[in-house]
Amino acid sequence: MIALDDKKVLVLGLSPSGIAASRFLLEGGAEVVLLDRRNTADVAKAAQEAGLSKTKLKLGATTVPKERFDFAVVAPEISLRDPLLLEAKERGIPVIGEIELGYQQSLCLNIAVTGTNGKTTTAQIIERVLTHCHRKTAISDESSAPLTSLVSKTKELDFLTLEVSSFQLEHTTFFRPTIAVFLNTAQDHLDRYESMAEYISTKARIFRNQQPFDWAIVQSEALAQLRALNLPVPAKVITFSANNRRADIFLDRGLIVSRLEDWAGPLLDMAKCKIGGPHNAESLMAALAVGRVLRLPLEQTSEALKNYELPPHRSELVAEVNGVKFINDSKSSNVGALHRALLSIPEGRAGEPNVWLIAGGRDKRFDFHDIGPLLSRRVKGAFLIGEAREKIRAAWSLFTPCTLMDSLLKAVSEATKLAAAGDIILLSPACSSHDQFRGYQHRGEVYRRAVAEWAHTTGSGGDSGDHQKTEQESKSEVSR
């Protein structure tokens, strides 16, 4: 544990994590200097709203102050190649991440979840299971609940449930989950990492300090990739997979089944759950494995899983109007997430394509070609928006008709002109939202409003009833 009293600490990054770290350090008696290279109106507003009056705050910073710092805390959004971070390291200032700071000060065990897709869903499911089984927990993620904002609660908790990104793992030193969950790997953040190998290696830091008596719950396909890169997993391992029936926990015709010793047999019927699809099945498998490790009763665990519903912007059915379904999968920020979304949607009649896809945004150096064969089977046409639209058209135009659009609103308008009963208009961007939107939530809300406005102008919105199903009425149809 780092003693904070009378320490002078440099914090890099005015983000929720950087702000939470600054507040925690101030409460511990440290002197804080907070730097951010940005100096936009949004950043200035965030700084004002943060209420860090005792912090020395510098926006538009180009250099680190010529002062002595005991250590530096870096927020997740700060790149490894950020000039301020590089300068701090060159000056010999010890650097840790916000999650490392919070971990070292916490007073309970933690369950950490990482992977390319499904982290939020899986962390929320695990939290639900623990709470349902009368274990005290709190959930942490880098934006809405950074770990340092929860430290004061940890003396009352049995476990912290952590959603952990590769960005957070970059500057870990002693961070050690009692149970580490590794969901999957797919192309992501290649605008930050030089290669997939570097990206996966960063993810694998979640296992770095685990001991042989800790637990690693790992998708079997991801474990094969870790082993191919000679990345060690020192803890006891439980594997799971929706596609590999040799995994310890696997999917068999809608049933989640275990082959673990003393726990063999069916565990959960997906038909009795409110979420569906292979990717969601894997989130449920991971939660079941956590329950097994913690010796939670299977009956109570299963009860919690059956009643779980997905958060917004994840294959969310917004409306069904005149037989056309509108699905908001704005959380999709990489090609792997788009792949999962398409597989979760029911096929059209006679297996014909039935999806009008809206995709695009800020490119993260993805290779968009690999998903082409799936597009040709499922997508009638794609409407492409954002900075990456030309690159995506070049990759997809051989597989499905592609139309460049100036905005999400125009893309929705054009898709509605072509969609017929039985079709699905899917927003699943496979890109970052930060070229045109404040985040994936903002992007999803814009889509929702566009759908609502279109439904109203066609006379099929509001109380029409016969033409428009509510989200609640149709949710299970989309998830299965």
**End-to-end distance:** 47 Å
Total beta strands: 21
- CATH topology of the largest domain, which one? UDP-N-acetylmuramoyl-L-alanine:D-glutamate ligase
- Give the overall form: globular
Structural class: alpha/beta
Number of domains: 3
Taking all Cα atoms into account, the compactness measure Rg is: 23 Å
**DSSP strand (E) fraction?**
15-25%
Structure annotation, total helices: 16
**CATH superfamily (homologous) name of the largest domain:** Mur-like, catalytic domain
Strand order of the largest sheet: 7-8-6-9-10-11-12-13-14
Question: Uncertain segments of ≥5 residues (pLDDT<50)?
Answer: 462-480
CATH class designation of the largest domain: Alpha Beta
CATH architectural name of the largest domain: 3-Layer(aba) Sandwich
Biggest sheet statistics: 9 strands, mixed
Overall pLDDT: 93
